Amino acid sequence: MSLLECKNLSKRFGQFEALKPTNLTLEKGSPIALIGPNGAGKTTFFSLLCNYIQASSGEIRILGEPIDSRSIQGRLGSLPQDAQLDRELNIVQQLSFLARLQGFSKAAATQEAERVLTLVDLGDSLTKKPQELSHGMNKRVLFAQALIGNPELVLLDEPTAGVDPNNARMIRNIIEQQSQQQTFIISSHNIAELEKLCQRVLYIEQGILREHQSQEQSTGNRAIIELELCSDQAQLVQDQLHKLAAFQSASSRNPRQLSIRYDAFENTFDQKLLALLAQQGIEYQQLKKGLSLEEQLFAEKN
Ligand SMILES: Nc1ncnc2c1ncn2[C@@H]1O[C@H](COP(=O)(O)OP(=O)(O)OP(=O)(O)O)[C@@H](O)[C@H]1O
User: Fold this and answer.
1) What's the pLDDT score for residue 86?
2) Which of 57, 98, 99, 134 has the greatest CB tally within 10 Å of its CB?
């Protein structure tokens, strides 16, 4: 049974279509990145999955159940972008209260709140109120709240926004650790961070959601080398590349840069390329195998 299935899912606000009709099936597994520019529709998509807003068309099933089904309760956790904590209650009280709403008994709810707070390294701060904690710690409380009841699917909207590098690393580590048993969908503007965590990527722009195929998937048996030269010699190199047996094609964004595609089965291509450069007396600044996720997404759009 699929983790998530959206069929013809769309959302309009008046005349404005924030999410265009979307068909999507996701299976349980490694964390999934949700990437897109401001206003692309990420929060709208999350809000639909959490049943905070009603779809204009289509349906969503989580673990085979419609999202308004009671049996979903406790199987979907979320950290909304603008989530707030109650200043009047300490953090273990707040999370126990939420656990009780999920059906935990009073004692079990306190235990569960303590468990998730310990998971995010706040075991020593259980009786603190939000205003006694730093911004990063509060974000970890909200993250802990999304883990109550060990849900199979956890949606995190900007989990590290406004958080310092230490707290961000801690959140990333917990996601990695928990990914053995839970599937995360994480939205963020920090593509480099998501690239470290997520093997699967959803890209949304102007309400159009699509699954991005990783470079390895989309290029099949093609591999890519990015070459940065010390001087304007990209054309000179390009003219010589046909000498390398596995060479397929090359393109250049500027006179010092080349993207070279070659047959991935030739695993000594980079060494042969370096030998060719040395032979021609051409100096290079950087040679990088493969493209970053940001470069891949950018290349798809252009
Ligand atoms: N309640 C609403 N009423 C009208 N328009 C809305 C509403 N909620 C969102 N929108 C519009 O839908 C579009 C998508 O918004 P959404 O918040 O989903 O984007 P986002 O990708 O999460 O953006 P950001 O990265 O800035 O958080 C935007 O143009 C936004 O103005």
Assistant:
1) 93
2) 99
Q: For residue 244, what is the domain's CATH number?
A: 3.30.70.100
Please give the residue range of the domain that contains residue 295.
Answer: 220-301
Alpha carbon of 158 to ligand 1 centroid (Å): 14
Residue 240 to residue 260: CA distance in whole angstroms: 12
Q: What is the mean pLDDT of each run of 10 residues along the chain (302 residues)?
A: 94 96 94 91 94 95 91 89 90 96 95 97 96 94 96 94 88 92 91 82 92 61 84 93 88 88 84 92 86 67 55
How many structural domains are present in the chain? 2
**pLDDT on residue 149:** 95
Phi and psi at residue 9, in whole multiples of 5°? -75, 130
What does the pLDDT read at residue 212? 78
Cβ atoms of residues 138 and 163 within 8 Å: no
Question: What's the 172 CA to ligand 1 centre distance in angstroms?
Answer: 26
Residue list, ligand 1 pocket, CB within 6 Å? 13, 16, 18, 36, 38-44
Do 195 and 248 share a domain, yes or no? no
Residue nearest ligand 1's atom 4 by CA: 13
Cα(236) to ligand 1 centroid in Å equals 48
- 272 token code pair: 């042969």
Question: Complex ipTM above 0.95?
Answer: yes
Pocket test residue of 9, 11, 16, 204 for ligand 1, highest count of atoms within 8 A of CB: 16
Burial class (CB in 10 A: 0-12, 13-18, 19+), 8: exposed
**Which residues are CB-neighbours of 144 under 8 A, at least 6 positions away?**
95, 116, 117, 119, 120, 122
Tokens of residue 118, six digits = 């310990």
